[in-house]
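Dear colleagues,

As part of the handover before I leave the project, I'm documenting each prediction I ran so the next person doesn't have to rerun anything. This entry is a single chain, and its sequence is reproduced below.
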Amino acid sequence: MTRLCIATTLALVATMSPSYSRAVNSAYQVDPAQSRVTIAVGKSGAFSFLGYKHEVTGPIESGSIDVDPANLSGSRVSLAIATSSLKVSGADEPPEDRPKVQEAMESDQVLGVARYPRITFESTGVTGGQPGTPALDVVVAGRLTIRDVTRPVSVPVHVQLGDHLLNANGRFSVRQTEFGIKPISVGGAVAVKDRLDITFSVAAER
């Protein structure tokens, strides 16, 4: 009878082990309705005082975040943004200028929406954070792809981790010229800066 109990227990443990392993690596799926990215670029040139920046914003279309609570360095992030979903926010833009800015942003000179439908990010490593805590400040290294040009980036991220929900936000900067984009100028008087400031907020659930 004792041997039968031991055998039954071992069989149950063997059956449960794969499920336990999957539970340790928590896979969260991005909620596009609650996840956004904002890209801002400042103006430069003789008449830059006419406005501070152009700003476009849109949803994070899809993605997954795999978190290993016991070993944060083994976590992975994958995100995708549809370039066609990015719209001029109008936060610091005269209403009459917004259609022109939208057209310029979508053109082949900048994002080339027709040719390059996605901006993507794939992590290569995660550092920092205290395993076992719900609030994490980490640095996510990865590959950012814009216009089919991929460059390494390092992004500070604040994460709130729950049993079923994950929220993350952060900010980082890149240069347009790193991705083959030449900053646009108008008659040499008003131009945009090379630097893009990117902020994001991600909500994901499992």
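The CA atoms of residues 78 and 122 lie 5 Å apart. The helical segments are 2-24, 98-106.

All the best with the project,
I.
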